[in-house]
Structure formats: C-alpha cells, structure tokens
Amino acid sequence: MDALEAIFTRRSLRAWEERPIPEALLREVLAAAMSAPSAGDARPWHFVLVEDRARLEGFIRKFVSNGEFGRPAAAAVVCGDPTLEKFPGFWPQDCSAATENLLLAAHALGLGAVWVAVHPIAEREQALRDALGIPGHVIPLAFVSMGWPAESKPREDRYQESRVHREHWGQHALAA
Fold it and tell me: How far is CA 144 from CA 29, 111, 165, in A?
C-alpha cells in the first residue's frame, strides 16, 4: 500500500478478530511511530505496549463511554516526556505525529486501530499512570487500540474547499 492510499483509506476501527498480533508487526508499527518528525529531533516519546486482555478491557471500560468497542489484541500508550524536549512545549505535537505514524503503519500492515484521547483529560492520564507505572513527569497522550480488523469502512472524500484559504483568509482558489 502506498503512502497516499494509506492516508486516504485509514479509518478508526473498533471491531477486531480474536487473534494476537505477531511481535514483528508490533515492532514495525512502533518503529514507524518513532520515525515521526519532532521539534529539534528530540523524540520526546515513550510507548507502553499492552497486550493483557483484562487490562485492555479495563481501560476500554474506563475510556469509552458509548460501549461500541470490540476486544483489541493490543494497545500502545503514547507518552510524552517533557524532560527530553529541546524546545519546551512541543511534546504534544511530536507525540501526535508519532501517533499518526503508528495509525498509518498499522493500517498499511493490515491492522485496524483507533486513537482514544488521553491528554489533556487528567483522570485518564492518572488512570494510565497508576495502572502502568508511568512516572509522574511523563504524560500519556493517546491510547491506540489495535487488532486484526473485523470491520471495514469505505474511503471518504473529506476535502473541504471552504477550509482552504489562499494568500489571505476568505480567499478560496485551489483547482480541483
């Protein structure tokens, strides 16, 4: 799958087959996450990989209120470490880029995934710190559930000309 196809066809999936993800694929997904750009190439991220079924289900019950969530094979908790920054305050952008890379890599490798927001919700941050032993100075940003998809979603055209401003706010002039 090429990069544009991965970008245009990736969707948040919440239904998975009951089978584990091989270690090599998990490593590849995390390697892609760690290939993200970061301010000053600081790479202020850490990842906590969770595969324990009871732990995963506990997090899902705590974080997902609508109940529409299957049983993922794994999750990666993307965390920012401000002590690793070269330029203070950029860790959320850096870790968001890593999270997007993780999502795209999972999709390109045939996995389904969904980004569940953690930061800036203090209760979610603390719940993950407590459950996973994350140090107090490290900030959980995202909980990304992954597995073999048991659903598929079609590509959507999400381009909105009204959100593109050319040279000056209010000017729209990109050719289709």
Answer: 11, 12, 32
Write the pLDDT tens digit of every residue in 86-112.
999 999 999 999 999 999 999 999 999
Given this structure, which CATH class describes domain 3-163? Answer: alpha beta
Find the DSSP H helices in the chain: 3-9, 23-33, 53-63, 91-108, 122-132
Q: What ranges do the domains of the chain cover?
A: 3-163
Q: Which residues of 143-158 are buried (b: 16+ CB within 10 A; e: fewer)?
A: bbbbbbbeeeeeeeee
Answer for the pair 79, 141: CB distance below 8 angstroms, yes or no: yes
The confidence score (pLDDT) of residue 47 equals 98
What is the number of other CB atoms lying within 10 angstroms of the CB of residue 138? Answer: 21
pLDDT recorded at residue 62: 82
**Which contacts of 104-107 are long-range, i.e. CB under 8 A and separated by 24 or more positions?**
104/3, 104/6, 104/7, 104/10, 104/32, 105/28, 105/29, 105/31, 105/32, 105/33, 106/29, 106/144, 106/146, 107/1, 107/6, 107/9, 107/10
